[in-house]
Amino acid sequence: METLKSNNKAVNIGGLTLIGLLIAFAYHATILWMYQRYMGADSYYSHGFIVPFVSLFFIYQQKDILSKTPQKTSLAGLFILLFALLLHILGTALYIFSISGFSLFFLIIGLTLFLFGGARTKIIWFPLLFLVFMFPLPMAVIGTVAFPLKIMAAKAGVWIVSLLGIPIYGEGFNIFIPAGHLLVGNPCSGLRSLIAFLALGSICAYMASLSTIKKWLVFLLAIPIALLSNVIRVPILILASHYWGLKAAAPGTFVHTGSGMLVFVIGFLLLLATVKVLE
After folding, report:
1. What is the rounded distance in angstroms from the CA atom of residue 102 to the CA atom of residue 136?
2. Does 3 have pLDDT greater than 50?
3. pLDDT at 132
């Protein structure tokens, strides 16, 4: 009996490995595109490398429950697989890798549902859905969302700094101070923080001992927390430019990088405090 179980386990591992290799072959161009988006100088998805490992960690936590749950294939997974393959064909034909990327997301869900069944898939629903954070949005969507965020960040920064009596003028995402002209670029729009905090918010909500409504509240409150964090950061950069010169707050400097890390920590603490209050 033990030998039979070992053989079945070996077959399962071998089958999953083969499926993984086939997916890697079919999606090699998409995976390369994702890697390039992760590694880009102004990447919004540098966290993409971590996402699958986080999902695997949460799946591993459910290993005992999964082992006790019967494995039964689900035909519903085939329909999701078909949808994923059609998306991949469309994305490949149009050279729109973001479509192909999200087709991989649906492919993983469809395969899980088909191979392991609805009962097991339900147990690991969060780790599966969390994978969505590793697939980059199209740059057109990034630009569309980042634009109003830049305007908001610039206006908030100008207003806060003006309260300190410093001469300042803002026009769009252009900021003028005595030291010179500052431009709120896409990296300072807050969109990167927004994506990261939505991912963190989903983890906090999943792990918290809260009702479903409160879990959703934690997740949604990650949005204003992310925006607030960025609103704090922009005045810091303006003040650094005013007192120490424009180069002091330029991208890549200690102030620019350090302020990003500081407000991220503040935002994360606010997120944890939100969970604590709701508990």
Report:
1. 8
2. no
3. 95
User: Higher confidence at residue 249 or residue 220?
Assistant: 220
- Residue of 211, 203, 217, 74 whose CA lies nearest to 132: 203
CB atoms within 10 A of CB 213: 8
Angle at 225 between CA 55 and CA 167, to 5 degrees: 140
Contact 242, 179 (CB under 8 A): yes
Give the three-class secondary structure for 180. strand
**Contact in structure between 157 and 164 (CB atoms under 8 Å):** no
Nearest partner of 73 among 15, 5, 21, judged by Cα: 15
> Which residues, including other chains, have CB under 8 Å from residue 258's CB and lie 6 or more apart?
none
Q: How many CB atoms lie within 10 A of CB 6?
A: 10
Cα–Cα distance measured from residue 68 to residue 186, given in angstroms and rounded to the nearest whole number = 48
Cβ-count burial 224-249 (b if 16+ within 10 Å, e if not) = ebbbbbbbbbbbbbbbbbbeeeeebb
The amino acid at residue 83 is F
Mutual angle of helices 76-94 and 28-39, in 10-degree steps:
70
Q: What is the pLDDT of residues 106-155, one digit of tens each?
A: 999 999 999 888 899 999 999 999 999 999 998 888 888 888 998 999 99
Q: What is the largest CA-CA distance in the chain?
A: 81
Which residue carries 């949604």 as its tokens?
220
Name the pTM for this structure: 0.86
